Amino acid sequence: MVTRPDPDLLRQLPAPHPDEAPLPPPAAISGIRLLRGVPYAVPEGGRPLELDLWLPAGGPAPLVLYVHGGAWRRGRRDDLGMRTRDWDPGPFARLAAAGLAVACVDYRLSGEARFPAPLEDLRAALRWLTLRSPELGIDTGRTLVWGESAGGHLAALLALTRPDPPLAGAVVWYGPSDLTTPRGGYSPDSAETPEAALLGAAPAACPEPARAASPLAHVHAAAPPFFLAHGTEDTMVAPSHTEDLAAALRAAGVPVRLRLVPGADHGWYGAPDAEVSGIFAASREFAVRQLL
After folding, report:
1. 26 touches 35 (CB < 8 A)
2. What is the domain partition of the chain in residue ranges?
3. Cα–Cα distance between 189 and 16 in angstroms, integer?
4. What is the pLDDT of residues 88-124, one digit of tens each?
5. What phi, psi does 252 have (nearest 5°)?
6. Which ranges of the chain have pLDDT less than 50?
7. Does pTM surpass 0.70?
8. 24-291: what CATH class?
9. Is the backbone of residue 251 left (phi > 0), alpha (psi -120 to 50) or beta?
10. How many CB atoms lie within 10 A of CB 151?
11. How far is CA 274 from its chain centroid?
């Protein structure tokens, strides 16, 4: 005989919803509170999406929303790229030391869901951070998005597609800006590219989604200021992605800082350590100026 489960059992089985779940106890690092693995959303049929939070001491801190790279199909939320992995203190601790809270977010990868899923996840993270901001001591009314590579692409899209709350700026390192046009070794006709995996088909075979996933197509006069950086010898994402995005933003009247790094390949490969440190410092300075 089949019996009905106890209603109280059914209520208690699922983990608490991220909107209401208790925050984990923070670790303390040189006056910075660090919360790792905080769930912010649970997509239907998918894994819980988590974020790490670096929280400076003091009153409500402005926020850097960080988006990792990895060709939309891999990567770790706490990775700012290969040239910063051995830094001590690490890049996010350095941002927190400057008075900026940092949220390093998961998003659904291309093996899990198609575009616009990862962009929707960033919006969900921003919504959750706003909801829980009194507990966290952050001010999402002052938020800058920062991403590298595929994360730079998503960061630019978020900044250009009018999120709520609106963003104060965007830092984009060597991110694709146009999925519709052949550039370097990339062809929109190929179904074997990371871009095709993101969209679910060769970009040329789905022109509307490809355009929707192209930051260059979303430039408008009310966009926030951008800091764009790219290596001149990038063999994975052609520098013209960043140059064309900078030109379009300027034509629309949006403040832009463009930094092209001579001799640098993707991920700042081949750039001197001092150059990489300088790019980070300039990006941090831009974030501080936009947020504080």
Report:
1. yes
2. 24-291
3. 44
4. 999 999 999 999 999 999 999 999 999 999 999 999 9
5. -85, -5
6. none
7. yes
8. alpha beta
9. alpha
10. 30
11. 25
